[in-house]
TrEMBL record:
Keywords: NAD, Oxidoreductase, Tricarboxylic acid cycle. Substrate binds at residues 108, 114, 146, 180. One of its GO terms (cellular component) is mitochondrion. The keyword Nucleus does not apply. Homodimer. InterPro entries: L-lactate/malate_DH, Lactate/malate_DH_C, Lactate/malate_DH_N, Lactate_DH/Glyco_Ohase_4_C, Malate_DH_AS, Malate_DH_type1, NAD(P)-bd_dom_sf. This is Malate dehydrogenase. Pfam families: Ldh_1_C, Ldh_1_N. Residues 174-338 form the Lactate/malate dehydrogenase C-terminal domain. NCBIfam families: MDH_euk_gproteo. One of its GO terms (biological process) is malate metabolic process. The active site is at residue 204. The lineage of its organism: Eukaryota, Metazoa, Ecdysozoa, Nematoda, Chromadorea. Its EC number is 1.1.1.37. It comes from Caenorhabditis brenneri (Nematode worm).
Length: 341
């Protein structure tokens, strides 16, 4: 009788056999983490290692992966951990992955915008996407690397060039904006943070981050003054952390939590448990812009349905309208980077 893939992987791990090619499936999800030794990668790996839905956690980085993998592999949870270091091992890291999470790249220092990271991170995401296109074209790809507004179009263009692009499978991770909104709103209003829901739409930089406070659940009233203070706080929350870290990087711990939450949602979707998350995806939700974050329904093929921005206040509509030009600039820059190379 054929053993399920999960048992094969575990049997090989305990017997010391090398598994050459195990076809992963929704029954034994493989998650590949690219940038696994970094500030986000390490705590995100810790959280993914504890996710009971993850059968195989493949850690990839250009440095220090073996140490991180050895450390995580001593945790008594079921996910098998493998280490892959340097470009030669990237193919194996992502091969047959169901979900690929990418925090590879440099973070901001005080005084920088996310767009200032473009010159370094655009090439990193392009090169990773080129290998994914060959090794794992059906994987769901969750991009954390900034500037997300541009790196998602970059990965998408690379996949298009390779003839394997599926817009339902490429995501910019904006979960941290949702997590922050829920933290700030629950604190301000004395709500149970674990039951507070605040969608955030648009993109992931400055004025493109648009919290829909009017859609807060449980239904919550905000004064104009509260909205005028909360909105920019959420938009500038990343900068708040960058400044507090004073040169030592940007958000890592809250991002790890957000990344693990989003990866778990993707895996649940793959396993047939439809669920809704905000994510920056190829979208027709807002006229005149090709990528936009809104709540999306996740399922076995990634994005099952784009749920759109829903009913918004006049204030929120103005922010949405104002974000379009900025997003288009960021998107065009990413597209040109791939097309011009
Ligand atoms: N989307 C978001 O909400 C969000 C939140 C926080 C940070 N970020 C972004 O995430 C990225 C990573 O942040 P960090 O704090 O973990 O940075 P970091 O410098 O601590 O870690 C980045 C890791 O990427 C690795 N790396 C570099 N080039 C690579 C390559 N070609 N392949 C694989 N790995 C490579 C590095 O070796 C390092 O281990 C940054 O671009 C940051 O701006 C995004
Ligand atoms: O602010 C940054 O540079 C990192 C990230 O995008 C964040 O929102 O924390």
């Amino acid at each position: 009788m054929a053993l399920p893939a999960k048992n094969l992987v575990q049997a090989a791990a305990t017997s010391g056999l090398r598994v050459v090619s195990v076809r992963h499936s929704s029954q034994a999800p493989k998650v590949a983490l690219l940038g696994a030794a970094g500030g986000i990668g390490q705590p995100l790996g810790l959280l993914l290692k504890q996710d009971p839905l993850v059968a195989h956690l493949a850690l990839y980085d250009v440095v220090n992966t073996p140490g991180v993998a050895a450390d995580l592999s001593h945790i008594d949870s079921n996910a098998k951990v493998t280490a892959h270091t340097g470009p030669k091992e990237l193919f194996a890291a992502v091969e047959n992955a169901d979900v690929i999470v990418i925090p590879a790249g440099v973070p901001r220092k005080p005084g920088m915008t996310r767009d200032d990271l473009f010159n370094t991170n655009a090439g990193i995401v392009r090169d990773l996407a080129a290998v994914i296109a060959k090794a794992s074209p059906k994987a769901l790809i969750a991009i954390i690397t900034n500037p997300v507004n541009s790196t998602v179009p970059i990965a998408s263009e690379v996949l298009k060039k390779a003839g394997v692009y599926d817009p339902k499978r490429v995501f910019g991770v904006t979960t941290l904006d949702v997590v922050r909104s829920q933290a700030f709103v629950s604190e301000l209003k004395g709500l149970d943070a674990s039951k507070t829901v605040v969608p955030v739409v648009g993109g992931h930089a400055g004025i493109t981050i648009i919290p829909l406070l009017s859609q807060t659940k449980p239904a919550t009233k905000f004064t104009d003054d509260e909205i005028a203070k909360l909105t920019p706080r959420i938009q500038d929350a990343g900068t708040e952390v960058v400044n507090a870290k004073a040169g030592a990087g940007s958000a890592t711990l809250s991002m790890a939590l957000a990344g693990a939450r989003f990866a778990n949602a993707l895996v649940r979707g793959i396993k047939g448990e439809k669920n809704v998350q905000c994510a920056y995806v190829a979208s027709d939700a807002v006229k005149g812009v090709e990528y936009f974050s809104t709540p999306v329904e996740l399922g076995p093929n990634g994005v099952e349905k784009i749920l759109g921005v829903g009913k918004v206040s006049a204030y929120e509509q103005k922010l949405i309208d104002a974000s379009v030009a900025e997003l288009n600039k960021n998107i065009a820059k990413g597209v040109a980077f791939v097309k011009g190379n």
